[in-house]
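Re: that chain you flagged

S.,

Sorry for the slow reply, it's been a week of failed gels. I finally had a moment to sit down with the sequence you sent. For the record, here it is as I used it:
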Amino acid sequence: MTTAFLHGLRMLGDLLIYGAFASFFAACLGGGSVPLLLLLPAFCYGVSACFSQRRALRTGCTAISLLGLLASGWIDRAAFLPAVFYALYLAWKGDYPLSDGRQSDVFLLFCKIYPVFSAAFGIIWDADAMLTVSLPLAVWAAFLQVFLMRVLRQAPAVYQKPSYLVRSAGSLAALAALGFLLSRPAVLGGAQAAVKTVYFGLAVPVLTLPLALLAWLAEHVLLPAMTSLLRWIAARSGNPDPDLLESLPGQPSAGQNLPPAGEPLMDGEQLLAILGLVLLAAGCAWLFRRLLQANKTSPSSLAQTDQTQTRKLPRRAHRRPAFFLSPNARIRRAHSRYLDRQAQHGVTRTPSETSLDRLGRTPFLDQEAERQLRHLYLKARYGECATPQDAAAAERLEQALEQHPK
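Prediction finished late last night. Pasting the structure tokens below so you have them in one place:
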């Protein structure tokens, strides 16, 4: 059941990517956005995954999605007919792939093509149709691709658990809900009002206080002291000219206009604009530097870096006593020490490897102990329901692997 659900989501992600392009042309030509034309083929394809060993049944289940075309106009039929035939062809062929690598390739290709498509056709054809019809489907397509990449990067025994799917979907749904709330005018207006209140009511007075203090000291302390010094020098030189004394700093003329008392020394909005420009310049400089570093990093240098990482000293696990750690943290610490032992013996480790890929990489270690330690590690990391007995067993397994003869 879980596998059929994932197959349906995977097909829906592919169809939403197609719909982000096809719905724009359908809307510009007078058609409408019909979600049934995308949801029904994905649902039928997911159900057909339950009969993946029988071609007739899986093809028949997916062929039911052709009925959705009868509830739409000829423009929508022409636009979404390739999507229905795509699902039907994969079901007839028996192609049911579930791979994070495939989803990553599809997502990256979509991120490269869709911005160019939306900018070009939105400007030269119909910007309203692009924003109201195509863009929502593109956002949902990206959301589904991110969810599938997050789920399918784990082992099948992990991502087939309903509890893990619910947790992953919950975190992404919370992020999507936050983005939806920030797009609402009331929430956005309230956030802007709060930021303005904090900035102009707290930050601006705190920032202008040192400047106001310096200005007051310069006007009431430094300038009179300099005036007195120049008067004393003029008196000692024997030339106390009244005109000279009137021209000294700190002696305002009769027609000089002084600023009114209580006027602020600095405009808060100006200070905010200047601060924003400084942050923008710093961000652009940081981004430009990162792009230069990325361009200088070639695949050969990355491979060389991966080879040399194993020769470095292994990472140190935190040294806090086991009394202050939860059972999950103790098991993960034991598994980390086991990985460090593998690295000491020249086992290359890449970020894309899973715990199953690292199993048995060191032949002289006890493979049964490795499997038991990995089982406890999966329970602690994904189930988060490890007991103190599990933690003690993981530490005993790690010590047994540590004491194994080289």
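What I noticed first: Confidence is low (pLDDT under 50) at residues 252-259, 297-318.

Talk soon,
D.
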